[in-house]
Amino acid sequence: MATQNTPAIQRLIDHVGSPTELARVLSERRASRLPPQNVFAWRRRGWASPVYLLELEPFMPPGMTLRELADDRLVAQGTVRKKAARKRAIKSARP
Hints:
Layout: H1 8-16, H2 19-29, H3 36-45, H4 53-56, H5 66-76, H6 82-93
Helix pairs in contact: 2-3, 5-6
């Protein structure tokens, strides 16, 4: 089971089923095909390409925010600490 310390892209992939399945559903909504290798690369590096963030929104599990997906990149690159990024994501999710 995924936790808040798991990258948001991994939680999104788990929610959809697999990287291949995520690539397939994204490709159905786009004019061009998204190769599954791209999604596997996102999972490996711990963040999704910013170009796709808005397209990923309909597939996010309940409670996940776009901020969490965007923060994955900052955390993976060491720009912000994981705890601070998650705390900011939790704050932004509050009503």
